[in-house]
Structures are given as C-alpha cells and as structure tokens.
Amino acid sequence: SAQQMVKVYGGEPGERERFDAVSRKVRSLQIKVAATRALSTATVQILADSALAVVVALAAREAVKDAMTAGQFMVVMSAMLAMLPSLKRFTSVQSQVQRGLAAASSLFEVIDTPAEDDAGTRALERARGHVAFRAVGLRYAGKEEAALDGIELDCAPGTVTALVGRSGSGKSSLVRLLPRFYEPSTGQVLLDGVPLPEYRLADLRRQIAVVSQEVALFDDSVAANIAYGDLAGAPLERIVAAARAANALEFIERLPQGFETRIGDRGALLSGGQRQRLAIARAILKDAPILILDEATSALDTESERLVQDALARIMAGRTTLVIAHRLSTVEHADQVAVMDQGRIVELGSHVQLIAADGLYARLHRMQFQGV
Q1: Range scoring the smallest mean pLDDT among 96-100, 187-191, 242-246
Q2: How far apart are CA 153 and CA 128, in angstroms?
Q3: Mind listing the pLDDT tens digit for each residue in 162-180?
Q4: Vertex 368, ends 302 and 331: CA angle to 5°?
C-alpha cells in the first residue's frame, strides 16, 4: 500500500527479504501439515494392515480347528475391508479439524469480546447540548499512568470549547468519552444534566456529529457517503443542500457522474480537502446538536483550509462544539479554551484571558507565532 515510499526510499531489497521470509515460513508450515497428514495416513494404514493380518491369522487357526466356516471367514474379512476406507478418511478429516480449531480460536476471541454497555433506558429525541465533565478520570487497560485526571469542564449549549495542548495531553481521550467510545474510570460525563449511561446508546450517538483529520469514506458514491448509516434514504435535495453548505458542490459537479460518482476505497480518488468537505457535508446533513472537530484542518493547504473553515463556521452556528486543534489561530474566537497537559486542564478561559495570564497557552501561542 505504501509502494511510492518504498520506491523513493529504496526499500525494495528490504521488502523483498521480508516477503521471502514470510513465504519461507508459510512453506515450512505447509510442509509440516503435509508431513503430519502423510505420517498419520501411513500410521493408520500400518495399524489397519496389521489388524487385518492378525484377523487373518486368527481366522486361519480357527479354520484349521474346524471352528470357523468359510462363510464366517468371509464375513470377518468383508467387515475388516469395509472399515479400511473409513479409517483412511479419518486421517484427512483430522487435519481439517485442526485447521478449524485454530480458526475457531480467533473467531471466538471476537465473539467473546464484551458488547458495549447499553443498559440506559432514557429516550432522547434532541438534546439541548449542555455537556459537563465532573471529576472525570480515565485509565486505559494495561497503562500505569492515567490518560485523564480530575477533569472539570462545562460546555454551555451553542458554545465553542477549544481543547489545546501538547500531543498526548489527553484531548482526544476526553472527546471520545462523549459518544461513549470509552467509559470514564472515575467521575461522570453529563448531557443536559443526565449521566450518559442513563441514555440509550443509539439515542446518545444520534446527538453527535464528528469531523476528524482521518476522514472515514467508503468505496461508494458521493451521495451514499454523505447520506451514510441512519442518513441513508435522505432526499437528494437535502444531500445537495448539505454539499453546498460544506463548499463541496463545486467539485462534486465536476465529477464524471456527479453525486453518483464512486470515490474509491477511503476516498482515494479525491484530494484531502475534498474528503474533508464531504465529511462536513455528512455532519451538516445529520444536523446533530453536538459537534466534535478533531484536527479537521491541520493537513490542508491554504485554499482548502479556507473553504473548510468557511464550511465549519456554518455548521458550528447554534451547536455545542468541541474543537481539538494544534493551530491556535483556529481557536482564537472560541467561547472558552481549555489548555490540557498530562491529562489535566491546567488553564481555562477565553483567548484574550489566557494570553494575558501568560501561562502555558501564551507560551504555545508565542512558539507558533514567533516568526510573525
């Protein structure tokens, strides 16, 4: 999949050696299987022939003593000969059973994975959008350090909250608690004053739209990617309106089949800015009261970023928005900025207040704009 990087950096010899090593391992395993099958077949054949020889010897001795008739002898021999094909087939079945057991081990590992906890009973048509984190802590399995520790944050309905900080400070972990991709180890996350586990999971996730740096697109038409999942079956007029609001209509109309054009696996036939605008159109069509923007413009060129920022400004209006950003210029107009470091919120306030406080946010801001 990374053949261009392999060519540019001269990785062909190393990749060839890696492929050869895997091929040799597979060949060795296949030879083991074939040898085991052949050995088991030979063993069963020898045992069966030995048993047949013993039966013939015993029958001959009984015949000498006139204790067995010719008919009885033929009955015993026929029974033995009828058993031999079944014994041979058993050896071939054995290898298939072993393969099946190995496959079943992987399959049942997935089946035995606990399902998401969906014990909530409270229905939710449309949330007001008041999000609150109360003493929230999160520790991933197998990790000694906590990803989040004592988070206290209020996001009022219709406001924009920016989460900034160094990489690994816990920004993404915090927003992933909202759609319950993870459950907090301590504390609670509230939506409109109600703990998230009390809501039905499907109802909760209908309240949230996500636009991230890694856009999830599928090998389907443009229209199907915008109207995805619960949005499938939306009228074309609404899809076109969402695309227009996301500044995506101008490039969609230039595609060979317009909204029916297939865009390839992960949107491979589109540019980064075009993929991002499709993701925004999907979020606009969903019309959810809560919006999560996870580095939505960090990998775009100047023109694409301007178009995406313009589309984001439209979708953020009237919605509770949580923005994760490394470019501090994109969060200067946020209602509040939460500065995170080592899983904690170390500063909270507006852009102007944090610059005046001359703390971590001000230092990060100076680092980004020291050349301006």
Answers
A1: 96-100
A2: 17
A3: 999 888 888 989 999 999 9
A4: 65
349 sits in the region (left: phi over 0; alpha: psi -120 to 50; else beta) called left
The DSSP letter of residue 114 is P
Question: ∠ at Cα 295 (348, 200), nearest 5°?
Answer: 80
CA–CA separation, 98 and 19 (whole Å):
26
| pLDDT for 5 | 86
In 3D space, the residue among 219, 217, 218, 222 whose CA is nearest the CA of residue 261 turns out to be 222
Q: Which residues contact 162 (CB under 8 A, 6 or more apart)?
A: 323, 324, 325, 331, 334, 336, 337, 338
Hey, how many other C-beta atoms are within 10 angstroms of the C-beta on 323? 24
Indicate if the pLDDT at residue 205 is higher than 80: yes
Q: Which backbone phi and psi does 347 adopt, to 5 degrees?
A: -145, 145
pLDDT band for position 212 (50/70/90)?
A: confident
For the record, the structure tokens of 320 come out as 């509770």
Q: Using CA atoms, how far apart are residues 339 and 166, in angstroms rounded to an integer?
A: 9
35-39 long-range contacts (CB < 8 A, ≥24 apart) are 36/95, 37/91, 37/92, 37/94, 37/95
Please name the amino acid found at residue 219.
D
Confirm if 327 and 297 have CB atoms less than 8 A apart.
yes
Cα 112–Cα 115–Cα 118 angle in degrees, nearest 5: 160
H or E element: which one contains 152?
strand 148-155
Measure the CA–CA gap between 76 and 83, rounded to whole angstroms: 11
- Asked which of 172-176, 204-208, 210-214, 308-312 is least confident by mean pLDDT, the reply is 308-312
Indicate the pairing of strand 320-324 with strand 160-165: parallel
pTM recorded for the entire structure: 0.73
Three-state DSSP state, 29: helix
Q: What is the mean pLDDT of residues 55-68?
A: 78
Q: Which two tokens stand for residue 255?
A: 């595609």
Note the maximum CA span of the chain: 116
